[in-house]
Structure formats: structure tokens, C-alpha cells
Amino acid sequence: MGITIARVAGIKLELHTTFLWFFGILVLLIGLSEPDSLLPTLGLFFLLFASVLIHELCHAVTAMHRGYRVKRILLSPIGGIAEMTELPSKPIDEFVITIAGPAFNFLVLFACAFLAALVPGLFPDNLSALANRPELLETLLIDYPLFGLAYLNLMLGAFNLFVPALPLDGGRILRSLLATPLGFARATRYVTYLSYVMSALLVLVGIFGNLWLVIIGAIVFLAAKSENQMVQIRETLGNQPVGTLLRPVPPLVPAEWMLDQAFDEMNKTNSSGLAVNLGNDIGLVDLGLLRQTPKTDWFGRTLGETAVKIPKIAPDTPAHKALLQLNQFGLPFLCVGDTERILGIVTLADIQQRYEIRKTGN
Fold first, then answer.
1. Which of 14, 115, 306, 316 makes a 20 to 30 Å CA pair with 107?
2. Given this model, what pLDDT does residue 260 score?
3. What is the CATH number of domain 242-361?
4. Is the pLDDT of residue 324 over 80?
5. Where in the sequence of the chain do the CATH 3.10.580.10 domains occur?
């Protein structure tokens, strides 16, 4: 779940809820243990945040320039991701979109180094001492903000570019290079296997003292597996439209209902969510939304005010594009129709079932 903080060029910038928890815990721990270093550390954190954000914006703007739509940029404690409505259809597109992020990081690195060469004192004089005394790094990063900015961008650019695993930039670039001779699906499959190896290595190294590497390794494994499945489904289904996979619109409850009525209905029918009649659209109210709303407000808020509007796609939308949206936003279904009416809905299970049938037939 993300919290929208801004819009840039029509792209929503969102913070994952875990980001706020992480930031709060970071402030608390530093404030209690080393209060004097709180502000400098937060300054360094801001530089990291800005570098990750602009890295992802470079991906997003480049994708839009090449004709792709970007839904949002989601920032979490372990990085960010620019979510596109579809995977790149051409290897050259994926290469150019992917390289834009690390290119920004290395550009910042070279700019900082150039500025430090012109103005003495912006970088520490004893950088060579880090080889023998790595514990000095944290102090130098805080005492020399420009050096901190350069170091953070070096780490961001190098890690993303030179670790050949999906969904990192290095894995996407390797896939784009392999896709021309092998085809997109086979290239994805091979890079996915490599991603599993890299994931295991990250976890193995992280077990000996770096929890972040363990977390990143686990995410690499899950994300690579998910992307490989997505690509194989796209390859198998081709451009089969969602209009051929429709199921009827579920029973709708009135938008005028209050939240307490919705809870009573969920309790009576043993369901985790209700589809809400929003005129030409359908909304969704589920247990998660109810939990986020104080119970004192249940009697004064209508479903129309609370429901999340389900996106509507055209009947000729390829099923693999619908699948990407379902996965990105964690929705149970998408509406299929036009501006005037809804023809039906399509679910994750519908698309996966069609994939299994086609795969068996092939």
C-alpha cells in the first residue's frame, strides 16, 4: 500500500507504508543513542532518498518518451520502482529505459568529483585511509556532504547496474542484450535462473552480518519469479483480449450504505469485500479499508465516500496487460467496458486459467 506524496509529469509518487515505519524507527534509535548526529544523519538519509527518487524518475521519463505509460513510482525502505502499465516490447526500449537510472547516478558521481577537484576541502583528504580503517567511512559521509552524495550514488549505480538479477537494472540490461538472439521469453527465463543464484549469494553473504542483503536477496527471488511468470504468460497468451475472458459483474451494494452496513453484510455473507455501485464505475470496500477507518466513523461515512474505484479497461486490452495491473495494485478484479457501461469483470484466476489451458495445449 502506498501513500501519494506528489505528482510529477502525471506520475504519482508514493511512499510504501513501511517507509514511514522505517523512518520513524531510524529517528527514534539515532535520537536515543546518538542525538548529536541525528540532523547530519537525516541529511544523509535525505540525499539517499532524493537520489533513489530521481533514479526512478529517469526510468519513468525515459519510458514515457518511448511511448510507455507509467502508473506510479513506489518508494520503500529498500529502494524504489517505476511501475509501467506493460513490459517493454522491444529489447532496445528496455535497454534505454533501464540504463537511464544508473546513468544519472554516475553523472552525479562525476559531477561531485569534478566539483571537489575545483574546490579544495569538499572531499576528505585521507580517502586512502579507508582501506585500512573502514570504520571512518560513516564519519566522513556525515562530515563531507558532497562526498556522501558521491558515495551514495556510486553504491546505487554500481549495485543496480552490476548485479545481474531481476528486478535490478543489471538483470534488465542483461535480458535486453539476450532478447535479440534468444527472444524475450527465453532471455527472461535464463536471467531468472541467474537471479535465483544471485539471490542465494546475497542471502548467504547477508547471514554473516548484513540483514539488508538477506531482505534484498529474498525480494530478488520473489520478484524474478513473478516477472518470469508474467513474461511466460504474455508469450503464451499473445494478444488475447480480456473481452474473451469476461465473467458477470458481481452483486453490487448501494453507494449510500454506511460502513457499518457494509460490515454487517460482510459478516452475514462471510465475505472479505463488497463491490459498490458507483454509477458507470464499480468501487471496492474490503476489510482492510474498514480496519483503516475508526469505528466511530462507520456510522457517518458512506461507501461512495470510502470505496476504491476499480480501474476500467477496454475489451480489446491484451490479457497480459490486465494481469500486470492486477499484480501491481493487488486488485481482485478489473472492470471491462467503455465510458458508458461495464460489460463484465476479469480476475487473476480467469487469466491464469486461460494460461494453463493454452500452455497445456501448446
1. 14
2. 92
3. 3.10.580.10
4. yes
5. 242-361
Write a three-state SS string for 258-309: EHHHHHHHHHHHCCCEEEEECCCCEEEEEHHHHHHCCHHHCCCCEHHHHCEE
Per DSSP, the chain holds a count of helices (H) and strands (E) of: 13, 11
pLDDT at 12 over 90: no
Angle, alpha carbons 243-222-105 (nearest 5°):
100
Cis peptide before 145 (omega within 30 of 0): no
The better pLDDT of the pair 1, 222 is held by 222
Q: Which helix (H) or strand (E) holds 335?
A: strand 333-337
Please identify which residue in the block is written with the cell numbers 469505528: 295
φ and ψ at residue 357, rounded to 5 degrees? -65, -50
What are the cell numbers at 304?
A: 461512495
| CB within 8 Å of 73: residues ≥ 6 apart | 11, 12, 13, 14, 53, 56, 57, 60, 80, 81, 82, 83
**Max CA pair span of the chain:** 72
If pLDDT is split at 50, 70 and 90, which confidence band does 129 have? low
Q: Which amino acid, one-letter code, is at 104?
A: F
